[in-house]
Amino acid sequence: MSTLIREMTVVLKSHDLLLTLEALARRADLHPDLVERYVEFGLIQPCQCEGPSLLFEPSAVLRLGVAQRLRRSLGINMAGIAVVLDLIDQIGALQDENQRLRRRQP
Questions:
Q1: Strands 16-20 and 10-13
Q2: H-helix segments, 1-106
Q3: How confident is the model at residue 53 (pLDDT cuts 50, 70, 90)?
Q4: Would the pTM of this model clear 0.90, i.e. be above it?
Q5: Domain that holds residue 60
Q6: CATH number for the domain including 97?
Q7: 3-class SS at 49?
Q8: Quick one: which of 56, 66, 90, 106 has the fewest CB in 10 Å?
């Protein structure tokens, strides 16, 4: 087992590694309080709560990276980041739907 895995608090569920808030903060190189603010603003969503702990999918690390780049590079506030991330999600869903429809065509 790698050192990184031993250092992180992870939970195995349905073959996916779930990260605690603290582990997510370490992976994203952010302070846990800032990650909590992102959760409060709805920028990232925990996939489940286990007791007092919030658990996140590993994809939340990438989402936090995008949010941080928007904040640092462009100076976008939390509300603006929420709008941009929502638009990115919508574009991704539309691209997935477009590809699905193209595969169905003869």
A1: antiparallel
A2: 3-7, 21-28, 32-40, 59-74, 78-104
A3: confident
A4: no
A5: 3-104
A6: 1.10.1660.10
A7: strand
A8: 106
